[in-house]
Amino acid sequence: MSDPNGAAFYIPGALLLLAGFLKLPPLWRNPKDELLRSVCVLLFAAAGVFATAAVPSIAAINRFTGVPNAAAPVVYTILTGFSGANLVLIIRWSSGPEDAERAARWSRRCNWATLAVIAAINGLFVLGDAPQERLVDLDTYYANTPYIREMIVLYLVAHTTAAVTMTVLCTRWARVVHGPLRAGLVFIVIGYILNLVYDGLKFTALGARWTDHDLDRLSWPIAPPIAAVSALLIGIGFVLPLLSQRLMDYAGMWRRYHQLQPAWRELRAATRHSINLAGGISTPIEVRVTQIESDIYDGILSVHPFLSPEVRELSLAEALKTAPSDEEAAVIADAAVLAHAVVMWSRHAAGQSEAPAEHAGDGPLLASANSAVGLVRLSRALSRSAIVRATREAAVLESSAR
Questions:
Q1: Domain residues for 351?
Q2: Is the separation of the CB atoms in 346 and 269 below 8 Å?
Q3: 388, 339 contact by CB (below 8 A)
Q4: Which of 250, 271, 304 is the endpoint of a domain?
Q5: 288 plus 328 within the same structural domain
Q6: From the centroid of its chain, how far is CA 261?
């Protein structure tokens, strides 16, 4: 390759390897997730392509094995495996549950075809004779050597076939999807178009050798950097949608956590902490959300006997005048009766009032609190609604007057 120190290959390879290791814990938790398993295989295969295709690695493999040019079938094998992993992943990725059987069948065919090509590449290298070590120009140097020539052509044909197939599949899919998935597919398509450019340069250089011409510079140093950029773009394309989804889920959990804060503050005094999951700043956001929801429900249970049907009816009638929908009005009414109940509960907890009448505990259930979305809307109304604010202030005045 054209980079004598290998930095241009080792750095992106290390990043892809790190991404692969980051995917191992989720795979350990979900070992039957075939999509996740395919992503891990692809990331490690891409890292392997970068690690073995650098000039220092090629020289090291040859030295380690004691076989001149032994790195060639190694690099071709990993590159073929990478192409096969891409095809399997895109088949599984683009298939819905109803196509699971068909996807599994095509995935098996891709795997068997990949293994067959890999076996043929290594078999042809064993049959051929390549005694002169070539670190950067093996393709053109041995372009006319029996069996080695066929090995080179086979890997290029397999590589080109995979590139054409992936370009067609991803282009079709990109036309019907949006967002991060579409962006990822665009990266993959660009990567495979560069792959086709790489293959075209290689075939042109080989063809020139077969016709007694010299276009070796197309094979090296022009083609290898194109292949490196291609592999990196393809890896990014596969990781981007998964990473974006994870970040979106993570941001959504934090947004939900902050949206629940008004309800938590409203009910903080009435919360009994039936569970205590959050243990510090390192607590995962999923645990934080579970904790705050538990605290809110605890508080609602504490003040439930003080929920007043009359207050809710009055608040609902008022909310219906300005709310954009009946559903939003019901949420505001729930928030208002909850705010009123918290004030009444606080007065009772301070010993300033008697327990509510026995039938009061059969007051309105807070329908808004029956779902995660409803709980967020209830929390938002507690902090934003003028009706809730007025009801809370009226409850405080009522409590002070007694």
A1: 262-401
A2: yes
A3: yes
A4: 250
A5: yes
A6: 28
CB 84, CB 162: distance < 8 Å: yes
Phi-psi region of 134 (alpha: psi -120 to 50; beta: other; left: phi over 0): beta
Give the pLDDT score at 337: 94
Q: In sequence order, what are the residues at sequence separation of 6 or more whose Cβ sits closer than 8 angstroms to the Cβ of residue 330?
A: 316, 319, 367, 368
Same-domain check for residues 109 and 167: yes
Which amino acid, 174? A
Tell whether 2 is covered by a domain: no
CATH number of the structural domain spanning residue 221: 1.20.1070
Bond into 221 cis (ω within 30): yes
Radius of gyration of the chain measured on its C-alpha atoms: 32
Element (H, E) at 162: helix 148-174
306 and 190 housed in the same domain? no
> Where does residue 117 rank: exposed (0-12), middle (13-18), buried (19+ CB within 10 A)?
buried
Distance of alpha carbon 293 from alpha carbon 236, whole angstroms: 36
**Do 33 and 173 belong to one domain?**
yes
300 within 8 A of 369, measured Cβ to Cβ = yes
Summarised one tens digit per residue, pLDDT across range 298-354 is 999 999 989 988 999 999 999 999 889 999 999 999 999 999 999 999 888 877 666
SS3 131: coil
Total tally of structural domains belonging to the chain: 2
- Residue 26, domain member (yes or no): yes
